[in-house]
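Escalated from tier 1: iron/sulfur cluster holo job.
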Amino acid sequence: MDKYRIYLTGVGGQGTLLATVVLAESAIYAGYNVVASEVHGMAQRGGVVESTVMIGDIKSSIISDGEADVLLGFEPLETYRAIRKCSAGSVVVSNTVPVIPYGVAIGKGSYPDVDKLLDFIGSKVKRLITIDAQVLAQQAGAVLSANMAMLGALAKSGALPVPKEAFEETIRTKTKASFVETNLRAFELGLASQ
Amino acid sequence: MHPLLTKETGKKFLLLGNEAIVRGALEAGVAFATTYPGTPASEIGDAFFRIARESDLYFEYSTNEKVALETAAGAAASGVRTICSMKHVGLNVAADPLMTLAYIGVRGGMVIVTADDPSMFSSQNEQDNRFYARLSSLPMLEPASCQEAKEMAREAFEISEALELPVILRTTTRLNHCRGIVTIGPLKPPENKGAFEKIPSRFVTVPATARVRHRVLLDQEEKARDMAVKSPFNTLTGEGPWGIAASGIAFNYVADAIKDLGIEDKVRVLKLGFTYPFPDVLAEEFIRSAEKILVVEELEPFLEENLKVTAHTNSLSTPISGKGPGLFSRLYEYNPGMVREVIARFFGVDYTRPESIDIKEDGQQVQLPIRPPNLCAGCPHRATYLAVKTALKETQTEAIFPTDIGCYTLGILPPLECADFLICMGSSVTSAAGISKATGKKVIAFIGDSTFFHSGITGLINAVHNKHNFILIILDNGTTAMTGHQPHPGVEVAPQEWDKPSISIEAVVRACGVENVAVVNPLNLAKTRKAVKEALGSIAFQSSYQRPFVPFMKGVFLAKKRNASLKSGLNATLIALNALIHLHALRFIKIRIPMAQQP
Ligand code: SF4
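Tier 2 regenerated the structure:
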């Protein structure tokens, strides 16, 4: 396969956009052509944040339903919601820690059972990898680094042609200096998590 | 140094579409930049804002898009290279200067960036601003990639100066917010000292001048058409009996689809980047070489109609299709799979779409809670809305809520539900007048501080003068929160080295003739509720007067004596100060994501 379409989804504030840039830059570092896309604006007020990274000979920057090779879900409900982007051949990497929607928090509706959501996904796609990104990030020293733990799990999955060294180099050069150590630790923990 | 000021010519960087536009303008030596922030164009102004602090470029966040365009027009008439960026609906606000600026033209190159938002990710409509090019007779470029965005932004200045006309650079959200690899070219230092040559017969559009200038514009339009025909941004590639014409982001979906469907040897592609004036000669060549043609463009059939006119003019009967049942829609943005499918169907190519996973197959039938964007936890706007709702409940009053554009529009969501009418920036104040007059009901309108400066003031003056009767609540957080905390004329929390005077909203409101003004801190629910009740006329207006406690706007309550004989019908204006929470406004000076050099 010479083309890879990666769909990222999460909730505002989870650092999905930084993860998008780190993934894109890592792929470039590894010698690939890259286009990425993100939606700003209203989505940042605690809403769903979706972005994409295309690696290889692709010009389009967005992903149609059923066409994601990899789905990186930063929140289990959002992974589930975005599953239409996947097909039976997709690899899904999902965080297992829910972010409770505002509506649920004020008593409107309930949050579904995470295991059941993930079981369904697992039964439909080629491979499902789950990690508790917040716990790993906490171990690394800052819960904000959960996005880097997610990238660690993605790198480990082998679903993309981007070596871990490319991620490490990008984290070193592209994330905030004061966070580099924690980010790298979180990445390594994600890498070792499976 | 700002990363976009890099001197590493020839190096490749991963840039956001908006950053690529900024870099292209810098490579053209742009010296003067104006904007009013609006998604998806905001990052253009934000980058210029930071760059202006370390270069000779002048930049300003103008009060609205009309002001931004007219300010830029003055600089361009003085021979300085200018850029003015805005979101698509911003060009509606600036449409008045745009139409006549086209008549007088410019002397320094001028680029007007309009960022359309198909699918309305963060807008109130999805109008197709390519029609502004046709309406104004101005040349237009439409990039398909980040690299092209940079090239076009730079080239637009050359085209502009060659024609002495502003050039429209039209983008869509997917271009503004896509990231792609861009090769950096040499920077050109800004020449920011202009000279204004007095030529009233050109620059003062009295009817006699305008008649002459319209003719000049039409002549220039034909020159621009020649440029479009020869432009490297318009290309005819591939060989084969089928024709596909595409522009903007849709071109990428076409290029990928042709490969995915394996029809490289069957299709000729007309890729248009210089889309107005329509390059008719090139289009004619394309039409002649094709058996049938599919036009792929988001939103309106702009190219399609031009192609059909070209075919008709040349007595060509080649079938040309684009919008229609089974083909493309005029609604929403496209996606690669949809374009691939329509191409396959139109040309009769075998294709089965990939099977996507459907959660309806999940036997558990889980009800998914929605996750709409929401006001930040602890946002003082919530407190304001809550105070209004309680005051209404306690006084058993029903009210209608015209609202405006900003974070506070999210007050539409339950449990607040404080939004009943919204069409555009500033429409809260004006529609409130109409609704209250027509219904005789209590009307409470909400408007943000930046929106108030943008287009609330004239409506307020109108309301006072015409004795309209409603309550206006100005939600003042001292910044333009929703688009990324850009400063505005009333800025309370200024970035470092900010040396611009702040205009007091309260003073403006009073100067507009509003006599009952209460300034409250919404986090003080009791006082805010009381102020709303006073405004509703249920209790006498507070007569105590306290000076605001400035640094943190903590516990501000300021109410002037109720004037027994109300000169204006407008019963009151509340200004809810949210400065406390908006200390995070300081963050907008940060660079979003560091850009670094590629190997
Ligand atoms: S950014 Fe400010 S105004 Fe907007 S929702 Fe958050 S706290 Fe409220």
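The mean pLDDT of chain A is 94.
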